[in-house]
């Protein structure tokens, strides 16, 4: 076992000592456990990011005109429009290929996120069963769900925000393809001001941009989230009622 010296601010050390006393353990033991948990969480995060990066790279690079995977996409687009050059397309190919790249990376991200959501769902199910051991856990599950602050609510918000992000990017890519001619879709500098000449479209297009409107989950989702905690609370209430009925004084 190796030895490592860590210099802690006095305030943090006092905070750790207070927690250790409340836990009935040493400050050293608490810090080792905290570092182990943080290391495990960081390792999982890095593994997740590495897998997401691997999947993204496998899709190809839509910003690279020589990418093999998107070269096939370009050939398909040209064939669909019956032309041989991107310059002859009725729309800006740059916007089309960016939309395709966004579609592929979005699908990869959502597939990876679905795996994370499945793990969290299994964890929530297990936590629900612990409510049979501790009524505090059961009450916490129910109260967080009713307050709209549960893990399920956070995941639902993230899903809706992600769908909005994808819709907004698609809107921008569509504007890029339809409103910006390919010939004006580049920076050309020169002259006294040396200012870029890339076409800027009218700001009024923002009036047509989709707006984010969050919709709270329905009762079925809320009940599914709180069912475990509610069942545990009901079991505790029934158990307490039976105990009270058995031990209460008999009135003659």
What can you tell me about this protein's structure?
- Among the domains are: 7-41, no CATH class; 91-183 and 199-239, no CATH class.
- The N and C termini lie far apart (69 Å).
- It has 7 helices and no strands.
- The chain has helices spanning 10-23, 27-59, 68-81, 93-130, 135-146, 151-179, 219-247.
- With 252 residues, it is mainly α.
- The radius of gyration is 29 Å and the shape is elongated.
- The mean pLDDT is 83.
- The longest helix has 38 residues, at 93-130.
Uncertain residue segments = none
Please give the radius of gyration in angstroms. 29 Å
Name the helicity range.
55-70%
Approximately how much beta-strand content do the residues carry?
under 5%
- Structural category: mainly alpha
Quick one: overall form? elongated
**What is the total tally of β strands?**
0
What is the N-to-C succession of helices and strands?
HHHHHHH
Main beta sheet strand tally, sense and closure = none
Number of helical stretches of at least 4 residues: 7
On the 0 to 100 scale, the average pLDDT is 83
Distance between the termini: 69 Å
